[in-house]
Records
---
Amino acid sequence: MTAARIVVAGSLNADLTIYSERLPNPGETLHGNGFAVNPGGKSANQAVAAAKLGGTVTLLGAVGQDPNGDMLVASTAGAGVDVSHVRRTAQPTGVAVISVDAGGENTIIINAGANGTLSPADMAPALFGDAAVVCLCLEVSLETVQAAAQAGHDAGATVLLNLSPYAPVADALAQLTDVLLVNAHEASQFLGGFAMPAPDAPVADWHGAIDKFAARGLHQVLVTLGSQGSVVLDSTNTAEPVVRIAPTVVDAVDTTGAGDAFTGAVAARLADGSTLADAARYASVAAALAATKKGTQTAYPTVAEVAARL
């Protein structure tokens, strides 16, 4: 375990997942071929992924006083995450309703539940005092995310913002963010409809995106490209501002939570002192391995499993 602490602030959800040969069309009913209730939520997933990859992780969040809350606290704690700052509330635990097809693709609808009670008051500066990395997403209120980003920034931590599920963010939050993690569609939305280069575009085509992100105060951005890998945009690295990260090829079973595995792995490697490009290479393997099993947290790889694939 790295001694550098990672603080993950945000959501915990119970994942209600049904599997079928394909995803239904609007108004269509299909027969499924499996159902499971698993621990999830982007922040809980990212915390577990980072902890299983050697990180020292504290999770800030809220769950209900119900069996789903019990499951989530047990799952995250079982992975080695400090859950002493996960509140129990009268609101029911958040849920995600997920459909997964035979190719591993999914659709997800979330209901905030207890996550909606998480507030800036929960982001006490003392909780961030020795953090090396603060990991955030947008499954809780933007005010809460900004309070956590501010606390992390003030503590001197690297603030890693996963802009998912997408929502417009104020310049104040963008300027508190040290590393932005987005997919290509989210990147385009964030930049006001700017057309992102194709996944196989030459490196030089990404320089326009670097300039656009820098204009919003973001100098280190990691853009994921699904099965095409990812690209690191780093205007602070004058020698190599664009680095393409090759995909890790696997037979995908369930891609649910693979992006969270990627984010958690990036957080773990940044806390350990890796460069953003090296963190992205490591995360590519972790996310791919996560997609080879059903579910999220239980599917996330260990340090040994990633090392074996590397």
---
Amino acid sequence: MARRSESVWDYPRPPRVEPESRRVAVTFAGVLIADSRNALRVLETSHPPTFYVPARDVNTGALQAAAPVTYCEWKGAASHWDICLGTSISHCAAWSYEQPRRGYELLRDHFAFYPDRVDRCTVGDEQATPQPGDFYGGWITPDIRGPFKGAPGTETW
């Protein structure tokens, strides 16, 4: 059964966290890093969904803490993670909220991945493409319609 098309302009602000029943998977350097049917997706106006995978469904042994900490006005301070598999390293390929702000507690003990910093991200049977730009980590699948924030010229949206 095909999933209904969604416009990112129908998503809420502040963002909403909801369960995702489709399989969410992330592969890097030929290794399955995350694989879950218990992911969460975060929906925010003008952004494609961001998927958060429970730590129990992530190969956390491949993650190494990275230096930068960023801040989301809604979710709080985000820790970033490198994926390290032998000589294959993807810098700041994942992030997590160790102490998410009120309303986003479900994101604790979950990891999100930038689709442009890994080999492949899938939702169900669909391969995701990255949200434009290098700051946001949304996953674009065929059922998601834009325009999307992140490309040059969209900074003030």
